[in-house]
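Hi team,

Filling in the usual template for the complex we talked about on Friday. All components are listed, including any nucleic acid strands or ligand strings, so the model treats them as one assembly.

SUBMITTER: L.P.
PURPOSE: interface mapping
COMPONENTS: two
RESIDUES: 592
SEQUENCES:
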Amino acid sequence: MVTLLLRSLRPHRSLPLRLPLVVDVPFRAGSHGPRLLYPGHIPTTSLQKMLLAAGSAGMALYNPYRHDMVAVLGETTGYCTLKFLRDQMKKDPEGAQILQERPRISLSTLDLSKLRSLPEGSLGREYLRFLDVNRVSPDTRAPTRFVDDEELAYVIQRYREVHDMLHTLLGMPTNMLGEIVVKWFEAVQTALPMCILGALFGPIRLRAQNLQVLFSELIPWAIQNGRRAPCVLNLYYERRWEQSLTALRDELGISPPPKHIQGLA
Amino acid sequence: MAAPRSCGLWRYCCRGWSRAAGDCRLPGFHRSWPGATPSARLLSQEKRAAETHFGFETVSEEEKGGKVYQVFESVARKYDVMNDMMSLGIHRAWKDLLIRKMHPLPGTQLLDVAGGTGDIAFRFLSYVQAQHQRKQRRQLRTQQNLSWEEIAKKYQNEEDPLGGSLVTVCDINREMLKVGKQKALDQGHTAGLAWVLGDAEELPFDDNQFDVYTIAFGIRNVTHIDRALQEAHRVLKPGGRFLCLEFSQVNDPLISRLYDLYSFQVIPVIGEVIAGDWKSYQYLVESIRKFPNQEEFKEMIEDAGFQKVTFENLTTGIVAIHSGFKL
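RESULT (copied from the run log):
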Protein backbone atom coordinates (compact mmCIF):
# COMPACT_ATOMS: atom_id res chain seq x y z
CA MET A 1 0.00 0.00 0.00
CA VAL A 2 2.81 2.36 0.95
CA THR A 3 4.83 1.45 -2.14
CA LEU A 4 1.79 2.14 -4.28
CA LEU A 5 1.42 5.56 -2.67
CA LEU A 6 5.12 6.30 -3.17
CA ARG A 7 4.96 5.15 -6.75
CA SER A 8 2.08 7.48 -7.47
CA LEU A 9 3.83 10.39 -5.75
CA ARG A 10 7.15 9.97 -7.50
CA PRO A 11 6.35 11.05 -11.09
CA HIS A 12 4.50 14.05 -9.70
CA ARG A 13 7.69 15.73 -8.60
CA SER A 14 8.90 16.25 -12.14
CA LEU A 15 5.83 18.05 -13.47
CA PRO A 16 4.89 21.58 -12.37
CA LEU A 17 1.20 21.88 -11.82
CA ARG A 18 0.68 25.44 -12.79
CA LEU A 19 1.36 25.55 -16.53
CA PRO A 20 -1.28 27.80 -18.01
CA LEU A 21 -2.44 26.06 -21.15
CA VAL A 22 -1.19 22.49 -20.90
CA VAL A 23 -2.09 20.92 -17.61
CA ASP A 24 -1.17 17.31 -17.10
CA VAL A 25 -1.57 15.97 -13.61
CA PRO A 26 0.26 12.69 -13.90
CA PHE A 27 -1.95 10.41 -11.89
CA ARG A 28 -5.22 11.70 -13.15
CA ALA A 29 -6.99 8.78 -14.72
CA GLY A 30 -7.69 10.30 -18.14
CA SER A 31 -11.34 9.96 -18.92
CA HIS A 32 -10.87 11.45 -22.36
CA GLY A 33 -8.05 11.26 -24.82
CA PRO A 34 -5.84 8.75 -26.59
CA ARG A 35 -5.67 6.28 -23.69
CA LEU A 36 -9.25 5.05 -24.15
CA LEU A 37 -9.36 1.43 -25.30
CA TYR A 38 -13.07 1.24 -25.99
CA PRO A 39 -16.05 3.58 -25.67
CA GLY A 40 -16.87 4.11 -22.05
CA HIS A 41 -13.41 3.09 -20.87
CA ILE A 42 -12.15 4.88 -17.74
CA PRO A 43 -8.44 4.18 -17.19
CA THR A 44 -7.69 3.68 -13.52
CA THR A 45 -4.54 3.22 -11.46
CA SER A 46 -4.03 0.16 -9.28
CA LEU A 47 -4.75 2.24 -6.19
CA GLN A 48 -8.04 3.35 -7.65
CA LYS A 49 -8.93 -0.23 -8.59
CA MET A 50 -8.23 -1.38 -5.05
CA LEU A 51 -10.33 1.39 -3.55
CA LEU A 52 -13.10 0.73 -6.06
CA ALA A 53 -13.07 -2.97 -5.29
CA ALA A 54 -13.29 -2.36 -1.55
CA GLY A 55 -15.90 0.37 -1.87
CA SER A 56 -18.09 -1.48 -4.34
CA ALA A 57 -17.94 -4.68 -2.27
CA GLY A 58 -19.06 -2.79 0.82
CA MET A 59 -21.79 -0.89 -1.01
CA ALA A 60 -23.09 -4.02 -2.72
CA LEU A 61 -23.44 -5.74 0.64
CA TYR A 62 -25.01 -2.66 2.21
CA ASN A 63 -27.45 -2.11 -0.62
CA PRO A 64 -27.96 -5.24 -2.75
CA TYR A 65 -30.04 -3.27 -5.24
CA ARG A 66 -26.87 -1.53 -6.43
CA HIS A 67 -26.21 -3.89 -9.32
CA ASP A 68 -23.75 -1.40 -10.73
CA MET A 69 -21.57 -1.98 -7.67
CA VAL A 70 -21.51 -5.71 -8.28
CA ALA A 71 -20.52 -5.00 -11.86
CA VAL A 72 -17.73 -2.64 -10.76
CA LEU A 73 -16.47 -5.25 -8.30
CA GLY A 74 -16.31 -7.78 -11.09
CA GLU A 75 -14.42 -5.44 -13.39
CA THR A 76 -11.85 -4.34 -10.87
CA THR A 77 -11.04 -7.77 -9.46
CA GLY A 78 -11.39 -10.01 -12.47
CA TYR A 79 -8.46 -9.16 -14.73
CA CYS A 80 -6.50 -12.40 -14.40
CA THR A 81 -9.54 -14.60 -14.35
CA LEU A 82 -10.89 -12.89 -17.45
CA LYS A 83 -7.66 -13.66 -19.26
CA PHE A 84 -8.01 -17.31 -18.34
CA LEU A 85 -11.65 -17.32 -19.46
CA ARG A 86 -10.76 -15.67 -22.73
CA ASP A 87 -8.10 -18.27 -23.43
CA GLN A 88 -10.57 -20.99 -22.64
CA MET A 89 -13.06 -19.46 -25.03
CA LYS A 90 -10.44 -19.32 -27.75
CA LYS A 91 -9.80 -23.04 -27.41
CA ASP A 92 -13.46 -23.96 -27.86
CA PRO A 93 -14.79 -23.60 -31.46
CA GLU A 94 -18.11 -22.02 -30.47
CA GLY A 95 -16.36 -19.77 -27.96
CA ALA A 96 -13.83 -18.64 -30.52
CA GLN A 97 -16.67 -17.70 -32.85
CA ILE A 98 -18.25 -15.62 -30.12
CA LEU A 99 -14.97 -13.79 -29.53
CA GLN A 100 -14.67 -13.08 -33.20
CA GLU A 101 -18.23 -12.02 -33.96
CA ARG A 102 -18.87 -10.33 -30.58
CA PRO A 103 -22.65 -10.78 -30.41
CA ARG A 104 -24.51 -8.62 -27.88
CA ILE A 105 -27.76 -9.44 -26.14
CA SER A 106 -29.83 -6.29 -25.88
CA LEU A 107 -33.32 -5.18 -26.77
CA SER A 108 -32.03 -3.72 -29.98
CA THR A 109 -30.37 -6.94 -31.14
CA LEU A 110 -33.09 -9.33 -30.02
CA ASP A 111 -36.04 -9.96 -32.27
CA LEU A 112 -38.73 -10.12 -29.60
CA SER A 113 -41.61 -11.00 -31.90
CA LYS A 114 -39.67 -13.89 -33.36
CA LEU A 115 -38.74 -15.13 -29.90
CA ARG A 116 -42.35 -14.91 -28.82
CA SER A 117 -43.44 -16.99 -31.79
CA LEU A 118 -41.11 -19.84 -30.89
CA PRO A 119 -42.64 -23.00 -29.43
CA GLU A 120 -43.08 -23.39 -25.68
CA GLY A 121 -40.10 -25.00 -24.01
CA SER A 122 -37.62 -23.55 -26.45
CA LEU A 123 -34.73 -21.49 -25.10
CA GLY A 124 -35.92 -18.29 -26.76
CA ARG A 125 -39.47 -18.56 -25.48
CA GLU A 126 -38.40 -19.45 -21.96
CA TYR A 127 -35.88 -16.60 -21.91
CA LEU A 128 -38.57 -14.16 -22.92
CA ARG A 129 -40.90 -15.57 -20.28
CA PHE A 130 -38.14 -15.14 -17.70
CA LEU A 131 -37.73 -11.47 -18.72
CA ASP A 132 -41.46 -10.85 -18.52
CA VAL A 133 -42.13 -12.65 -15.25
CA ASN A 134 -39.25 -11.03 -13.41
CA ARG A 135 -39.76 -7.69 -15.16
CA VAL A 136 -36.15 -7.31 -16.16
CA SER A 137 -34.61 -6.15 -19.38
CA PRO A 138 -31.28 -7.06 -20.95
CA ASP A 139 -30.55 -3.35 -21.31
CA THR A 140 -30.11 -2.70 -17.63
CA ARG A 141 -26.61 -4.14 -17.70
CA ALA A 142 -24.07 -1.39 -17.17
CA PRO A 143 -21.37 -1.18 -19.86
CA THR A 144 -17.82 -2.16 -18.92
CA ARG A 145 -15.67 0.73 -17.80
CA PHE A 146 -12.74 -0.32 -15.66
CA VAL A 147 -11.21 -3.25 -17.55
CA ASP A 148 -7.96 -2.22 -19.19
CA ASP A 149 -8.14 -4.55 -22.17
CA GLU A 150 -10.59 -4.30 -24.98
CA GLU A 151 -11.14 -8.01 -25.55
CA LEU A 152 -11.47 -8.75 -21.84
CA ALA A 153 -13.98 -5.91 -21.62
CA TYR A 154 -16.08 -7.82 -24.13
CA VAL A 155 -15.65 -11.07 -22.23
CA ILE A 156 -17.02 -9.58 -19.04
CA GLN A 157 -19.80 -7.85 -20.95
CA ARG A 158 -20.71 -11.22 -22.46
CA TYR A 159 -20.61 -12.80 -19.03
CA ARG A 160 -23.07 -10.20 -17.78
CA GLU A 161 -25.42 -10.64 -20.69
CA VAL A 162 -25.27 -14.42 -20.34
CA HIS A 163 -26.22 -14.09 -16.66
CA ASP A 164 -29.89 -13.86 -17.57
CA MET A 165 -29.51 -16.96 -19.72
CA LEU A 166 -28.18 -18.76 -16.70
CA HIS A 167 -31.23 -17.77 -14.74
CA THR A 168 -33.32 -19.35 -17.47
CA LEU A 169 -31.17 -22.47 -17.67
CA LEU A 170 -31.14 -22.99 -13.95
CA GLY A 171 -34.75 -21.93 -13.52
CA MET A 172 -33.89 -19.45 -10.78
CA PRO A 173 -35.93 -16.26 -10.14
CA THR A 174 -34.25 -12.88 -9.70
CA ASN A 175 -34.86 -12.55 -5.97
CA MET A 176 -31.96 -12.62 -3.53
CA LEU A 177 -32.06 -16.38 -3.10
CA GLY A 178 -32.14 -17.09 -6.81
CA GLU A 179 -29.30 -14.67 -7.44
CA ILE A 180 -27.11 -16.36 -4.84
CA VAL A 181 -27.72 -19.79 -6.36
CA VAL A 182 -26.75 -18.48 -9.78
CA LYS A 183 -23.68 -16.86 -8.21
CA TRP A 184 -22.60 -20.22 -6.80
CA PHE A 185 -22.99 -21.79 -10.20
CA GLU A 186 -21.02 -18.99 -11.82
CA ALA A 187 -18.33 -19.11 -9.15
CA VAL A 188 -17.69 -22.77 -9.89
CA GLN A 189 -17.84 -22.19 -13.63
CA THR A 190 -15.85 -18.98 -14.05
CA ALA A 191 -13.92 -18.55 -10.78
CA LEU A 192 -14.37 -14.79 -11.07
CA PRO A 193 -13.49 -13.23 -7.70
CA MET A 194 -16.71 -11.24 -7.77
CA CYS A 195 -18.77 -14.42 -8.12
CA ILE A 196 -16.87 -16.11 -5.33
CA LEU A 197 -17.30 -13.10 -3.04
CA GLY A 198 -20.95 -12.81 -3.95
CA ALA A 199 -21.51 -16.48 -3.32
CA LEU A 200 -19.76 -16.38 0.05
CA PHE A 201 -21.10 -13.08 1.37
CA GLY A 202 -24.47 -12.87 -0.33
CA PRO A 203 -26.15 -15.24 2.16
CA ILE A 204 -25.53 -12.65 4.90
CA ARG A 205 -28.58 -10.82 3.63
CA LEU A 206 -30.88 -13.80 3.68
CA ARG A 207 -33.43 -14.84 6.25
CA ALA A 208 -32.84 -17.92 8.35
CA GLN A 209 -35.39 -20.19 6.68
CA ASN A 210 -33.97 -19.40 3.26
CA LEU A 211 -30.47 -20.04 4.52
CA GLN A 212 -31.49 -23.50 5.55
CA VAL A 213 -32.78 -24.45 2.12
CA LEU A 214 -29.83 -22.71 0.52
CA PHE A 215 -27.19 -24.69 2.32
CA SER A 216 -28.97 -28.02 2.39
CA GLU A 217 -30.20 -28.28 -1.19
CA LEU A 218 -29.54 -25.37 -3.49
CA ILE A 219 -25.81 -24.86 -3.07
CA PRO A 220 -24.88 -28.54 -3.49
CA TRP A 221 -27.11 -28.67 -6.56
CA ALA A 222 -25.50 -25.53 -8.00
CA ILE A 223 -21.97 -26.78 -7.35
CA GLN A 224 -22.70 -30.18 -8.85
CA ASN A 225 -24.10 -28.66 -12.01
CA GLY A 226 -21.38 -26.06 -12.21
CA ARG A 227 -18.73 -28.73 -12.23
CA ARG A 228 -20.53 -30.97 -14.66
CA ALA A 229 -21.41 -28.37 -17.25
CA PRO A 230 -18.87 -27.08 -19.77
CA CYS A 231 -18.07 -23.37 -19.71
CA VAL A 232 -21.36 -21.56 -20.28
CA LEU A 233 -19.62 -18.63 -21.91
CA ASN A 234 -18.84 -20.88 -24.85
CA LEU A 235 -22.45 -21.23 -25.88
CA TYR A 236 -23.60 -19.15 -28.82
CA TYR A 237 -27.07 -18.54 -27.38
CA GLU A 238 -28.19 -16.42 -30.30
CA ARG A 239 -28.00 -19.49 -32.52
CA ARG A 240 -29.80 -21.74 -30.09
CA TRP A 241 -33.08 -19.92 -29.62
CA GLU A 242 -35.05 -22.72 -31.21
CA GLN A 243 -33.33 -25.45 -29.22
CA SER A 244 -35.55 -26.94 -26.53
CA LEU A 245 -34.58 -25.96 -23.01
CA THR A 246 -34.64 -29.54 -21.73
CA ALA A 247 -32.43 -30.64 -24.61
CA LEU A 248 -29.98 -27.86 -23.79
CA ARG A 249 -30.00 -28.80 -20.14
CA ASP A 250 -29.28 -32.40 -21.05
CA GLU A 251 -26.44 -31.28 -23.29
CA LEU A 252 -24.91 -29.29 -20.48
CA GLY A 253 -25.63 -31.84 -17.79
CA ILE A 254 -27.83 -29.50 -15.74
CA SER A 255 -30.36 -31.36 -13.66
CA PRO A 256 -33.82 -29.79 -13.11
CA PRO A 257 -33.95 -27.23 -10.28
CA PRO A 258 -35.29 -28.25 -6.88
CA LYS A 259 -39.02 -27.42 -6.69
CA HIS A 260 -38.77 -25.65 -3.33
CA ILE A 261 -37.43 -22.42 -4.78
CA GLN A 262 -40.77 -21.49 -6.31
CA GLY A 263 -42.47 -20.78 -3.03
CA LEU A 264 -39.64 -18.95 -1.32
CA ALA A 265 -38.64 -15.30 -0.88
CA MET B 1 5.43 31.73 -10.18
CA ALA B 2 4.90 31.84 -13.91
CA ALA B 3 6.44 34.56 -16.09
CA PRO B 4 4.34 37.68 -16.75
CA ARG B 5 3.29 36.70 -20.26
CA SER B 6 2.17 33.23 -19.25
CA CYS B 7 0.37 34.87 -16.35
CA GLY B 8 -1.50 36.94 -18.91
CA LEU B 9 -2.19 33.84 -20.96
CA TRP B 10 -3.57 32.11 -17.91
CA ARG B 11 -5.89 35.03 -17.17
CA TYR B 12 -6.89 34.89 -20.79
CA CYS B 13 -8.05 31.31 -20.46
CA CYS B 14 -9.97 32.00 -17.32
CA ARG B 15 -11.86 34.85 -18.86
CA GLY B 16 -13.11 32.48 -21.49
CA TRP B 17 -11.32 34.23 -24.33
CA SER B 18 -14.06 36.85 -24.29
CA ARG B 19 -11.64 39.61 -25.20
CA ALA B 20 -9.74 37.65 -27.80
CA ALA B 21 -11.64 39.08 -30.75
CA GLY B 22 -10.90 42.75 -30.12
CA ASP B 23 -7.80 42.55 -28.01
CA CYS B 24 -4.56 42.53 -29.94
CA ARG B 25 -2.36 42.71 -26.87
CA LEU B 26 -0.84 39.28 -27.34
CA PRO B 27 1.75 39.27 -30.12
CA GLY B 28 1.50 35.52 -30.41
CA PHE B 29 -1.79 35.66 -32.24
CA HIS B 30 -0.50 38.03 -34.89
CA ARG B 31 2.34 35.69 -35.66
CA SER B 32 0.22 32.60 -36.08
CA TRP B 33 -1.79 33.96 -39.00
CA PRO B 34 0.78 36.01 -40.93
CA GLY B 35 -0.90 36.02 -44.32
CA ALA B 36 -4.51 36.49 -43.22
CA THR B 37 -6.35 39.75 -43.82
CA PRO B 38 -7.46 41.60 -40.68
CA SER B 39 -11.13 40.68 -41.01
CA ALA B 40 -10.39 37.02 -41.68
CA ARG B 41 -8.00 37.00 -38.79
CA LEU B 42 -10.69 38.43 -36.57
CA LEU B 43 -13.10 35.72 -37.68
CA SER B 44 -10.65 32.89 -37.10
CA GLN B 45 -9.67 34.40 -33.78
CA GLU B 46 -13.30 34.55 -32.79
CA LYS B 47 -13.93 30.95 -33.84
CA ARG B 48 -10.89 29.65 -31.99
CA ALA B 49 -11.63 32.00 -29.15
CA ALA B 50 -15.01 30.48 -28.35
CA GLU B 51 -13.38 27.57 -26.56
CA THR B 52 -12.98 27.04 -22.88
CA HIS B 53 -12.15 24.29 -20.44
CA PHE B 54 -14.48 21.71 -18.95
CA GLY B 55 -12.23 20.12 -16.37
CA PHE B 56 -9.20 19.11 -18.45
CA GLU B 57 -11.23 18.82 -21.63
CA THR B 58 -11.51 21.61 -24.14
CA VAL B 59 -15.05 22.41 -25.15
CA SER B 60 -16.82 25.27 -26.86
CA GLU B 61 -18.34 27.89 -24.62
CA GLU B 62 -21.89 26.99 -25.58
CA GLU B 63 -21.21 23.40 -24.70
CA LYS B 64 -19.73 24.13 -21.30
CA GLY B 65 -22.93 25.52 -19.85
CA GLY B 66 -24.89 22.49 -20.95
CA LYS B 67 -22.31 20.04 -19.70
CA VAL B 68 -22.09 21.72 -16.30
CA TYR B 69 -25.87 21.65 -16.12
CA GLN B 70 -25.86 17.90 -16.74
CA VAL B 71 -23.23 17.32 -14.08
CA PHE B 72 -25.25 19.08 -11.41
CA GLU B 73 -28.50 17.56 -12.58
CA SER B 74 -27.08 14.11 -12.00
CA VAL B 75 -25.37 14.87 -8.67
CA ALA B 76 -28.17 16.96 -7.15
CA ARG B 77 -29.75 14.28 -5.02
CA LYS B 78 -26.51 12.98 -3.59
CA TYR B 79 -24.84 16.42 -3.46
CA ASP B 80 -24.88 16.87 0.30
CA VAL B 81 -23.92 13.28 1.11
CA MET B 82 -21.02 13.48 -1.31
CA ASN B 83 -19.86 16.80 0.12
CA ASP B 84 -19.69 15.21 3.54
CA MET B 85 -17.85 12.16 2.27
CA MET B 86 -15.36 14.01 0.11
CA SER B 87 -14.45 16.71 2.60
CA LEU B 88 -14.95 14.47 5.65
CA GLY B 89 -17.49 16.96 6.92
CA ILE B 90 -15.07 19.88 6.83
CA HIS B 91 -17.17 21.74 4.25
CA ARG B 92 -19.60 22.52 7.09
CA ALA B 93 -16.88 24.36 8.96
CA TRP B 94 -15.94 26.28 5.82
CA LYS B 95 -19.50 27.42 5.29
CA ASP B 96 -19.87 28.35 8.95
CA LEU B 97 -16.71 30.44 8.67
CA LEU B 98 -18.11 32.22 5.64
CA ILE B 99 -21.23 33.25 7.54
CA ARG B 100 -19.17 34.23 10.56
CA LYS B 101 -17.02 36.42 8.34
CA MET B 102 -20.10 37.94 6.80
CA HIS B 103 -21.52 38.67 10.29
CA PRO B 104 -24.93 39.60 8.90
CA LEU B 105 -27.19 41.73 11.03
CA PRO B 106 -30.98 41.42 11.03
CA GLY B 107 -32.39 43.21 8.02
CA THR B 108 -29.68 42.08 5.59
CA GLN B 109 -30.74 41.27 2.04
CA LEU B 110 -28.54 38.41 0.88
CA LEU B 111 -28.21 37.04 -2.63
CA ASP B 112 -26.75 33.55 -2.66
CA VAL B 113 -25.81 32.63 -6.21
CA ALA B 114 -25.25 29.01 -7.23
CA GLY B 115 -26.70 28.28 -3.83
CA GLY B 116 -28.81 25.36 -5.03
CA THR B 117 -29.13 23.12 -2.02
CA GLY B 118 -29.28 26.06 0.35
CA ASP B 119 -26.38 25.40 2.72
CA ILE B 120 -25.37 29.07 2.90
CA ALA B 121 -28.96 30.32 2.94
CA PHE B 122 -29.99 28.17 5.90
CA ARG B 123 -26.89 29.09 7.87
CA PHE B 124 -27.58 32.74 7.15
CA LEU B 125 -31.14 32.43 8.41
CA SER B 126 -30.09 30.69 11.62
CA TYR B 127 -27.37 33.26 12.25
CA VAL B 128 -29.64 36.22 11.64
CA GLN B 129 -32.36 34.74 13.80
CA ALA B 130 -29.89 34.23 16.65
CA GLN B 131 -28.61 37.81 16.22
CA HIS B 132 -32.14 39.14 16.27
CA GLN B 133 -32.95 37.29 19.46
CA ARG B 134 -29.82 38.62 21.09
CA LYS B 135 -30.70 42.15 20.05
CA GLN B 136 -34.17 41.74 21.51
CA ARG B 137 -32.83 40.46 24.78
CA ARG B 138 -30.33 43.30 24.96
CA GLN B 139 -33.11 45.81 24.36
CA LEU B 140 -35.21 44.31 27.08
CA ARG B 141 -32.34 44.37 29.53
CA THR B 142 -31.77 48.08 29.02
CA GLN B 143 -35.37 48.89 29.75
CA GLN B 144 -35.63 48.88 33.49
CA ASN B 145 -38.60 48.16 35.70
CA LEU B 146 -40.70 46.43 33.13
CA SER B 147 -43.59 44.39 34.44
CA TRP B 148 -44.03 40.79 33.37
CA GLU B 149 -47.03 41.71 31.27
CA GLU B 150 -45.04 44.25 29.32
CA ILE B 151 -42.21 41.80 28.67
CA ALA B 152 -44.65 39.12 27.54
CA LYS B 153 -46.35 41.61 25.23
CA LYS B 154 -42.97 42.54 23.74
CA TYR B 155 -42.31 38.94 22.82
CA GLN B 156 -45.82 38.37 21.55
CA ASN B 157 -45.71 41.41 19.32
CA GLU B 158 -42.73 40.05 17.51
CA GLU B 159 -43.93 39.34 13.99
CA ASP B 160 -40.71 38.79 12.15
CA PRO B 161 -38.17 36.60 13.96
CA LEU B 162 -35.70 37.45 11.24
CA GLY B 163 -35.91 41.18 11.64
CA GLY B 164 -36.52 41.84 7.98
CA SER B 165 -33.69 39.70 6.61
CA LEU B 166 -34.24 37.94 3.34
CA VAL B 167 -32.08 35.51 1.40
CA THR B 168 -32.63 34.98 -2.30
CA VAL B 169 -31.20 31.68 -3.50
CA CYS B 170 -30.40 31.84 -7.18
CA ASP B 171 -29.24 28.80 -9.17
CA ILE B 172 -29.17 27.93 -12.83
CA ASN B 173 -30.06 24.29 -12.16
CA ARG B 174 -33.64 23.27 -11.46
CA GLU B 175 -32.70 19.99 -9.78
CA MET B 176 -30.45 21.67 -7.25
CA LEU B 177 -33.18 24.17 -6.41
CA LYS B 178 -35.66 21.33 -5.98
CA VAL B 179 -33.36 19.63 -3.49
CA GLY B 180 -32.87 22.95 -1.70
CA LYS B 181 -36.58 23.60 -1.39
CA GLN B 182 -37.16 20.14 0.01
CA LYS B 183 -34.38 20.67 2.53
CA ALA B 184 -35.93 23.95 3.60
CA LEU B 185 -39.18 22.13 4.35
CA ASP B 186 -37.37 19.36 6.20
CA GLN B 187 -35.38 21.76 8.33
CA GLY B 188 -38.31 24.03 9.05
CA HIS B 189 -37.13 27.18 7.30
CA THR B 190 -40.34 28.77 6.13
CA ALA B 191 -39.75 32.51 6.16
CA GLY B 192 -37.12 34.73 4.64
CA LEU B 193 -36.36 32.51 1.62
CA ALA B 194 -36.85 33.17 -2.06
CA TRP B 195 -35.84 30.65 -4.76
CA VAL B 196 -34.98 32.01 -8.17
CA LEU B 197 -33.86 30.19 -11.30
CA GLY B 198 -31.18 32.33 -12.89
CA ASP B 199 -27.81 32.50 -14.59
CA ALA B 200 -24.91 34.04 -12.64
CA GLU B 201 -23.74 35.74 -15.84
CA GLU B 202 -27.11 37.40 -16.34
CA LEU B 203 -28.88 37.84 -13.04
CA PRO B 204 -32.62 38.49 -13.18
CA PHE B 205 -32.43 41.32 -10.66
CA ASP B 206 -32.33 45.10 -10.79
CA ASP B 207 -29.26 47.16 -9.97
CA ASN B 208 -28.35 48.01 -6.39
CA GLN B 209 -30.63 45.53 -4.72
CA PHE B 210 -28.67 43.44 -2.25
CA ASP B 211 -26.50 44.04 0.78
CA VAL B 212 -24.39 40.92 0.42
CA TYR B 213 -23.66 38.67 -2.55
CA THR B 214 -22.25 35.22 -1.89
CA ILE B 215 -21.23 32.44 -4.18
CA ALA B 216 -20.01 29.28 -2.52
CA PHE B 217 -18.29 26.62 -4.64
CA GLY B 218 -20.12 27.85 -7.68
CA ILE B 219 -18.02 30.39 -9.51
CA ARG B 220 -15.55 27.90 -10.93
CA ASN B 221 -18.39 26.30 -12.88
CA VAL B 222 -19.37 29.55 -14.56
CA THR B 223 -18.28 29.85 -18.18
CA HIS B 224 -17.41 33.56 -18.01
CA ILE B 225 -16.22 34.35 -14.54
CA ASP B 226 -15.64 38.02 -15.35
CA ARG B 227 -19.28 38.44 -16.38
CA ALA B 228 -20.44 36.83 -13.15
CA LEU B 229 -18.25 39.25 -11.20
CA GLN B 230 -19.62 42.21 -13.14
CA GLU B 231 -23.16 41.07 -12.45
CA ALA B 232 -22.29 40.76 -8.78
CA HIS B 233 -21.06 44.34 -8.82
CA ARG B 234 -24.23 45.49 -10.54
CA VAL B 235 -26.80 43.97 -8.20
CA LEU B 236 -25.05 44.99 -5.00
CA LYS B 237 -25.99 48.20 -3.25
CA PRO B 238 -23.23 50.74 -2.78
CA GLY B 239 -21.48 49.60 0.38
CA GLY B 240 -22.48 46.03 -0.39
CA ARG B 241 -20.14 43.11 0.13
CA PHE B 242 -19.06 40.39 -2.28
CA LEU B 243 -18.03 37.10 -0.70
CA CYS B 244 -16.79 34.08 -2.55
CA LEU B 245 -15.98 30.72 -1.01
CA GLU B 246 -14.09 28.59 -3.48
CA PHE B 247 -11.43 25.93 -3.84
CA SER B 248 -8.05 27.44 -4.38
CA GLN B 249 -4.36 26.57 -4.64
CA VAL B 250 -2.42 24.94 -1.87
CA ASN B 251 1.04 26.42 -1.51
CA ASP B 252 2.71 23.92 0.75
CA PRO B 253 4.28 21.31 -1.58
CA LEU B 254 3.77 18.27 0.64
CA ILE B 255 0.16 19.03 1.41
CA SER B 256 -0.38 19.85 -2.25
CA ARG B 257 0.84 16.42 -3.29
CA LEU B 258 -1.31 14.66 -0.71
CA TYR B 259 -4.26 16.78 -1.75
CA ASP B 260 -3.74 15.89 -5.42
CA LEU B 261 -3.40 12.25 -4.57
CA TYR B 262 -6.62 12.36 -2.59
CA SER B 263 -8.44 14.40 -5.24
CA PHE B 264 -7.57 12.31 -8.23
CA GLN B 265 -7.35 8.85 -6.73
CA VAL B 266 -10.02 8.82 -4.06
CA ILE B 267 -12.72 11.33 -4.95
CA PRO B 268 -13.87 9.78 -8.26
CA VAL B 269 -13.96 6.41 -6.52
CA ILE B 270 -16.19 7.82 -3.78
CA GLY B 271 -18.34 9.37 -6.49
CA GLU B 272 -18.69 6.03 -8.23
CA VAL B 273 -19.43 4.04 -5.09
CA ILE B 274 -21.86 6.46 -3.47
CA ALA B 275 -23.46 8.29 -6.34
CA GLY B 276 -22.75 5.90 -9.21
CA ASP B 277 -21.16 8.77 -11.10
CA TRP B 278 -17.42 8.75 -11.75
CA LYS B 279 -17.33 11.36 -14.47
CA SER B 280 -19.04 14.17 -12.56
CA TYR B 281 -16.57 13.94 -9.73
CA GLN B 282 -13.67 13.68 -12.15
CA TYR B 283 -14.95 16.96 -13.60
CA LEU B 284 -15.15 18.45 -10.12
CA VAL B 285 -11.52 17.79 -9.19
CA GLU B 286 -10.32 18.87 -12.62
CA SER B 287 -12.31 22.11 -12.49
CA ILE B 288 -10.64 22.92 -9.16
CA ARG B 289 -7.24 22.69 -10.86
CA LYS B 290 -8.35 24.97 -13.68
CA PHE B 291 -9.55 27.74 -11.41
CA PRO B 292 -7.14 30.69 -10.92
CA ASN B 293 -5.20 30.92 -7.69
CA GLN B 294 -5.89 33.32 -4.84
CA GLU B 295 -3.92 36.29 -6.19
CA GLU B 296 -5.23 36.02 -9.73
CA PHE B 297 -8.80 35.69 -8.62
CA LYS B 298 -8.30 38.71 -6.38
CA GLU B 299 -7.17 40.69 -9.42
CA MET B 300 -10.21 39.52 -11.36
CA ILE B 301 -12.47 40.74 -8.57
CA GLU B 302 -10.68 44.09 -8.56
CA ASP B 303 -11.13 44.33 -12.30
CA ALA B 304 -14.88 44.00 -11.87
CA GLY B 305 -14.86 47.15 -9.79
CA PHE B 306 -14.66 45.94 -6.22
CA GLN B 307 -12.52 47.66 -3.65
CA LYS B 308 -10.69 46.49 -0.56
CA VAL B 309 -10.43 42.99 -1.99
CA THR B 310 -8.89 40.52 0.42
CA PHE B 311 -8.71 36.78 0.69
CA GLU B 312 -8.36 34.37 3.55
CA ASN B 313 -7.02 30.84 3.17
CA LEU B 314 -8.81 28.03 4.94
CA THR B 315 -7.29 24.60 5.54
CA THR B 316 -3.87 25.60 4.18
CA GLY B 317 -5.30 26.98 0.98
CA ILE B 318 -7.53 24.16 -0.12
CA VAL B 319 -10.34 26.68 0.15
CA ALA B 320 -10.22 30.48 0.15
CA ILE B 321 -12.75 33.18 1.00
CA HIS B 322 -12.43 36.25 -1.19
CA SER B 323 -14.12 39.44 -0.05
CA GLY B 324 -14.65 42.77 -1.81
CA PHE B 325 -16.80 45.87 -1.40
CA LYS B 326 -18.74 47.95 -3.84
CA LEU B 327 -17.95 51.47 -2.76
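MY TAKE: Chain A is about 55% helix and 0% strand. Confidence is low (pLDDT under 50) at residues 11-31 of chain A.

Thanks, L.
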